[in-house]
Amino acid sequence: MRINRAKIENFRLLRDVEIGFEEQTTLIVGRNNSGKTSIAELFRRLLSDRALSFRLEDFSLGCHECFWTSLVSFRAQQDSSETLGQLPAIKLVLDIGYDVDAADLGPLSECIIDLNPDCHEARLEFRFAPKANALQALFVDLTEPLEDPEADRARLYRELGNRIASAYAGSLEAVDPNDPTNRKTLEPKILSALVGGGFINAQRGLDDDTFRERDVLGKVVEVLFQSALTDELDPTRRSTAEQLKEAVDQIQGDLHIGFNAKLTSLLPTFDLFGYPGLVDPGLVTETSFDVDKLLATTRACATGA
What we know:
By secondary structure, the protein is of the alpha+beta class.
């Protein structure tokens, strides 16, 4: 039993990619920004024990326009079912080959739903797709366009960063390779039972803090902030938390304007080194601070005797 093929759509640099796997070893080689890390990161998330989550930045740049198209359609007709279908989804399709004469296929047996005796592949399809109420969750307060079209777009993508998690959900289905309409819903955790593997992380000098443990006090402050923000009994605590969030939002806006201006002056230098590359027409930044994560990763405690 092994993975024969993987088809990935709308995840980072993998807009629409199909990969074939060799029986023993598959080596993926490519230039920078060609999608090698994107492949590893997608499998890392799907096979991780942590809760599965994706952000706006995980969607391929090429499908970001779909969010704008959906908003335009939503403004014209809010109850249209076609508008929901315009929203992009991250998708992974795995074709897993197996021996039809095997006595026990283990957890893969739950994924085999076809009745064709000559078929020796099971197909799994994972989707991070919009929920039924996604249009309201994403666009409910964006129905009135701003006078400046560029500002209107910027507002949309800024808000999407905070709303994707509540408007989207992950799902896993077994699909009949001979009939795509024949499907069976599965628990996403079955992937980790089917696919075994480990990851060796490359050393990256400038950003090698991905797996650094956060400060213990920072975790406590993060929990206190979240608790105060949702406290229905003590308006004083909630007000303090909201003021803290507003202060960070103001800093975020000021930093975004200044940093973008300075970065633009460096773009000719980046171009000399071949960056951003053939698939990226330019480099634009969007400064964003997550208040609770900011508290968790930057707070330190010192005690004196």
